[in-house]
Amino acid sequence: MKDAIINAEDVRFSYVTAEGVAPIVLDGVSLSIEEGSFVAVLGHNGSGKSTLAKHFNSILLPTGGKVYVDGMDTADEELLLSIRRTVGMVFQNPDNQIVANVVEEDVAFAPENLGVPPEEIRLRVDDALKAVGMYEFREHAPHLLSGGQKQRIAIAGVIAMQPRCIVLDEPTAMLDPIGRADVLRTIKELNRQRGVTVVLITHHMDEAAQADRLVVMTKGRVIADGAPKEIFQDVEGLKAVGLTVPETTQLLWELRQEGLDVPLDALSDEECAQALKELLA
Ligand SMILES: Nc1ncnc2c1ncn2[C@@H]1O[C@H](COP(=O)(O)OP(=O)(O)OP(=O)(O)O)[C@@H](O)[C@H]1O
Ligand SMILES: [Mg+2]
Asked: Global pTM?
């Protein structure tokens, strides 16, 4: 097995609010993210996904337990910069992540803050914009772009820091279907072609289905962890915690309820079509 880039060990967390310490939000989460993998995190609203993600680059520190990024303890203040260089974060709303009036200046912002020399920044910005398919927009004004394009610019800004891992918290939640598909394709290419470790938090089952591994959270705990094909077969278990399954699985599950002999693990559209073809043969 490859080394873990992120290691969460029995992480507990409560937000401190004006009224005092709030209820437990993370209730003993242990999770190891293998370098180079593409992991999706699912869970209904309030299950603690964003809170967990913020532990992965020291935005939040555990109340109990430990988080290690490439072996670095996230609670060690002296390691903060190294941790932020290793794990980049992308959030839901692209408008909140755009900081400059020109695309390439926006992408240059983070590496400039890291003290990367100007000639190196030039190379990194061009490379990052090509990686997200937005190079030809480098001199455009970001606020005039579509939501999906803006989100890809935000991803380029993170890529320009050359992180080994990128954590995306519902990056497609505010996008239309085309923007959503473009962003997901970009994320997959970063993982497959550049070997960037990806942690994708999503409410979209079709996106989660494309990951190597699915982690399902409920009430601050991990309740399932495995390959999408395995996890989605537990249709009733997922429904019980307020989640759905991909449309392919749902269709096959309903056919099985009717007594038809179809597999439940035909997750992609092609596999599902094949299963139906065999049924009709
Ligand atoms: N800044 C905060 N202060 C106090 N409580 C918070 C804060 N942020 C989140 N919470 C609470 O922590 C719990 C977990 O929230 P979190 O945002 O991690 O869930 P989530 O799984 O990301 O949900 P969603 O799917 O809605 O994004 C919720 O009960 C939420 O109300
Ligand atoms: Mg969230």
From this structure: 0.94
